[in-house]
Amino acid sequence: MAKYTGPRCKLCRREMTPLMLKGQRCLTDKCPLKGDKKYPPGPPKKRRTKMSDYAVQLREKQKIKRTYGLLEKAFRLNFEEANRMKGVTGDNMLSLLERRLDNVVYRTGFASSRSQARQLIQHQHITVNGRVVDIPSFIVREGHQIEIRENFKTNTVLEDSIKLSKAIDSKPEWIDADYDAKTAKVSRIPVRTDVKEGFNEQLVVELYSK
After folding, report:
1. Residue 91 DSSP SS3
2. Is the domain defined by 8-42+52-97+198-208 classed in CATH 1.10.1050.10?
3. What is the pLDDT of residue 16?
4. Can you give the C-alpha Rg of the chain in angstroms?
5. What is the pTM of this model?
6. Cα(45)–Cα(64) distance, rounded to whole angstroms?
7. Secondary structure letter of residue 100 according to DSSP
8. What DSSP element (H or E) covers 209?
């Protein structure tokens, strides 16, 4: 599976907003945007011009895509699937992104970042309804039961992630988690109001509709 392997803080600086690419660790680590690097990477521009409509749409697309840790092909496929569904395309797109298994593992608190969640899934530490699923892009449905496999339940990395998740109370309302049993259940399909990040998904719809 292709993935971005470059410096993650540079992506946040490019979008000039925290993308939480290190997950919950971004809340404790020193963020360049809070320090002396409050500018995009690369050589400084002598003159700043107003961004075109296309540039605004592109930046919003890049922000959402990078937040969920997707490359262009996977993100485009997600949008096309959302476009085929009934309802508002932008809302469907964010709902599908939230329902990705790697995002669910991260949102639940079993991993401190989405990249760490993908690693847990690919190493076959996660089951869905009792069956091992090693595909991070797997879309969960209402009623699905996500569980940490028995041989990983006492891992210190998992324990640290759960401890941090409890401390900041980051678990979404559409997931019921039992941290003692290391299980979680999708109680309902996430809706637009469940996504707390300040995304403007309509800009992405306009960009891909050209």
Report:
1. helix
2. yes
3. 54
4. 18
5. 0.81
6. 25
7. B
8. none
Report d(CA 134, CA 115) in Å as an integer.
14
Mapped onto helix, strand or coil, the DSSP state of residue 144 is: coil
For 92-103, what is the mean pLDDT? 96
Rounded Cα–Cα distance for residues 87 and 93 (Å):
10
- For residue 80, give both structure tokens: 């096309």
Cα–Cα distance, 9 to 196 (Å, whole number):
21
Mean pLDDT (the chain) is 84
Distances (CA, A) of 208 to 79, 88, 170, 181, 204: 8, 14, 31, 43, 6
Q: Which CATH superfamily is domain 100-190 in?
A: RNA-binding S4 domain (3.10.290.10)
Is pLDDT above 60 for 96?
A: yes
